[in-house]
Amino acid sequence: MSQSTSIGSSEPTWRPLLAKWGLSFFLAALCGYLLWAYTTGTFTVFTTAALIIHEAGHVFFAPFGWTLCILGGSLFQLILPGLFVFSFLHQSYRPGVQISLVWLGQNALYVSTYAADAQERALPLITNDPSTHDWWMLLRAAGLLPYDDVVGAAFLGVALLAFGIALMLPRALL
Predict the structure, then answer these.
(1) Domain span at residue 27?
(2) How many structural domains is the chain composed of?
(3) Residue 30: helix, strand or coil by DSSP?
């Protein structure tokens, strides 16, 4: 079977395109799935992983006072993949940067949902006690509880930005 080739080359014309953008195509499907899960409230294996990281953040930040202990769950969800992004950037390893950016975006989606739920407190919590809702405590203490939807939207923006950068990062940039 004949394959389309570029002039003066025996390599099929689609191979360089796939080599440059193949991971982005795969990650686009994953981002679509994550956004679908976000908009439908579907729990996935990624949700469980994010929850484990979130709870570890509370433990990690506990020695630094009440505010950082409470904020630490969401903060750790963003810091951990961010560290991977910077590590892979330092190594100029594009696939690692892209995957870590999607991971960062996925965690930002979950933080977005959690922050936007601060007033309603409808999400299930490990404690089953709505007074332990991290973002309810933080925003209430700061006098910003009426703006939980704005805070949630800001984290959604972070997620979409991370997804966009991850998908548009061709091999030539690193």
Answers:
(1) 21-173
(2) 1
(3) helix
